[in-house]
Amino acid sequence: MTISNNLISIKESLPADIVLVAVSKHKSNNAIMEAYCAGQKIFGENKVQELVEKYAELPKDIEWHMIGHLQTNKVKHIALFVHLIHSVDSLSLLKEIDKRAFQNNRIIDCLVQVHIAKEESKFGFSVEQIPWVISEAKSLENIRIRGLMGIATMTENTQQIEKEFHLLKNLFDAVKTDQINILSMGMSNDYPLAILHGSNMIRVGSSIFGLR
Ligand SMILES: *Cc1c(COP(=O)(O)O)cnc(C)c1O
User: Fold this and answer.
1) CA-to-CA distance for 95 and 85, rounded, in angstroms?
2) Sign of CA dihedral 108, 114, 117, 120
């Protein structure tokens, strides 16, 4: 299977209202161009340096999403062009994005990352903090909270994964507005389950590009 075949068969299997973010971390420009030429325009990266290099080298109509943990001191490198930041996991980060967006005369769309997994290592706010984060964000004029993002536990136990997706969907429904309407959940191993549980944005890497 080639990258374009993988991409096309995934796209054909998706309901029409699901946004596919092709996660291209560690993948070459050639690999990205193969997906791009097959029609994919939204790519996700998890490292600032890689994101900056790929932005510089690849077509300018690509929408670049930052999906990995973002250090506050690195926001300035992506503020000019990043399309959506999925991984807002602290208020200080949100304030820094706001500041750098202002300096670039932009409004940057953000998702608030929610910690839903059992693993301690996953970043994100607790479920209980989310209404507070959203209300704090209202005073920041150069960011726009567009929704929530979560990463389920890495496990074969689908019941556990479903429980976590269900939790995030309930939270999403509680905070949803016209503006807060993106629910980013689901990766290669669990995106069909995520869609069943109300995801409308999936982040798929290895099923498109092969194992890293
Ligand atoms: C790597 C990554 C993905 C994609 O993972 P695959 O299992 O390769 O689909 C999705 N979301 C985040 C946050 C990631 O870091």
Assistant:
1) 13
2) positive
What band does 118 get if pLDDT is binned at 50, 70 and 90? confident
Q: Among 51, 67, 113, which is best to mutate for testing ligand 1, by the most ligand atoms less than 8 A from CB? A: 67
Euclidean distance between the first and the last CA atom of the chain, given in angstroms as a whole number? 16
Q: What is the pTM of this model?
A: 0.97
Residue 62: which of 38, 40, 77 has the closest Cα? 40
The token pair that represents 5 in the structure block: 């075949």
Distance CA 184, CA 27 (A): 22
CA of 188 relative to ligand 1 center, distance in Å? 7
CA–CA dist 134, 157 (Å, integer): 31
Tokens of 201: 């944005």
CA distance 107 to 143: 5
Q: For a pocket test of ligand 1, which of 6, 23, 115, 195 has the largest count of ligand atoms closer than 8 A to its C-beta?
A: 23
- Amino acid residing at 162: E
pLDDT tens profile 155-202: 999 999 999 999 999 999 999 999 999 999 999 999 999 999 999 999
